[in-house]
Amino acid sequence: MAGEKIIELKDVFFSYGKEWVLENINLCINKGDCIAVFGPNGGGKTTLLKILLGLLKPQKGKVIYHKKCEIGYLPQIQRNIHFPIKVIELVLMGLANSKKIGFLNKRKDIEKAEQALKRVDMEKFKDATIHELSGGQLQRVYLARALVSDPEVLVLDEPTSNIDVQARFCFYEFLEKLGNDMTLIMVSHDLSLSVTRINKIACVNKRLIISDTLNFNRDMLRLIYGEHLDHNCPVTPYFEVGKVPFINQNKVRGL
């Protein structure tokens, strides 16, 4: 049922050492949400995703999983990959609970991997090695790996950081086709994010501010860019107005 709670973070604090990387984080993720997460490098975005995934445990606060569900994860992709693995083998790695027969995958798992590749238009490359692929093609293969377990929630960390502009828009189109039932949480630096389903934007820089108006308000801009009122800066007018539009494929909201 759309709108039901899936994951909730309450008063979460996390540190790798003496200083907090995240502090007093409160976030509720509902079924069908599509959340874009923005923030500076080192601001805690990837740490936040890892806490949502259960890969890291907060020192304070709690993470509540309101329902048991599969979560797919697309990490940041490094382009310089030369490991001799085939596309189909990489996708099969997304089936963590798969049981092999000796060194062979079950036919059912292979069919699931092939279906995931078909879903992202990469089935004809299933026997290629991954170093033969372009950046955009490799990104789609990793997306297939995240989708092969039929997740209800898909978490993406900078999914378009290492691909060109054309491949970026194609990738956004693939995300758009995933359906309104899938919950998406995506970290990005791209303010012109073209996923039209986005219904919330979050800014993270140690603290978190979230908005469902699809505008960056003054507090969000200060959080991710700092104060810019004492010199001539392109960001300055938006501090004065108090909001900057979030741009998507079809319309501009805000100013």
Which features does this protein show?
3-stranded antiparallel sheet; 25% strand; 255 residues; disordered C terminus; single chain; alpha/beta
Short structural description:
With 255 residues, the chain is an alpha/beta fold. It is 26% helix and 25% strand.
How does this model look, in words?
26% of the residues lie in helices and 25% in strands. It has 255 residues and is of the alpha/beta class. The radius of gyration is 19 Å and the shape is globular. The strands form three sheets. It has a six-stranded mixed β-sheet with strand order 5-6-7-3-8-9, with helices on both faces. A three-stranded antiparallel β-sheet has the order 2-1-4, covered by helices on one side. The protein has helices spanning 45-53, 87-92, 107-119, 135-147, 165-176, 218-225, 236-241; strands at 5-15, 20-30, 34-38, 60-65, 71-74, 153-157, 183-187, 200-205, 207-211, 215-217, 243-245.
Write the topology of this structure.
Layout: E1 5-15, E2 20-30, E3 34-38, H1 45-53, E4 60-65, E5 71-74, H2 87-92, H3 107-119, H4 135-147, E6 153-157, H5 165-176, E7 183-187, E8 200-205, E9 207-211, E10 215-217, H6 218-225, H7 236-241, E11 243-245
Parallel strand pairs: 3-7, 3-8, 5-6, 6-7
Antiparallel strand pairs: 1-2, 1-4, 8-9, 10-11
Helix pairs in contact: 3-4, 4-5
Oligomer: single chain
The shape, in one word, is globular
Helix content: 25-40%
Strand order of the largest sheet: 5-6-7-3-8-9
Which residues sit in consecutive blocks of at least 5 with pLDDT less than 50? 249-255
Average pLDDT, rounded to a whole number, is 82
Separate helix tally:
7
Q: What is the count of β-strands?
A: 11
Radius of gyration: 19 Å
Order of helices and strands: EEEHEEHHHEHEEEEHHE
How many angstroms does the end-to-end distance come to? Answer: 34 Å
Beta-sheet strand percentage? 25-35%
Main sheet overview? 6 strands, mixed
Helix and strand content put the structural class at alpha/beta
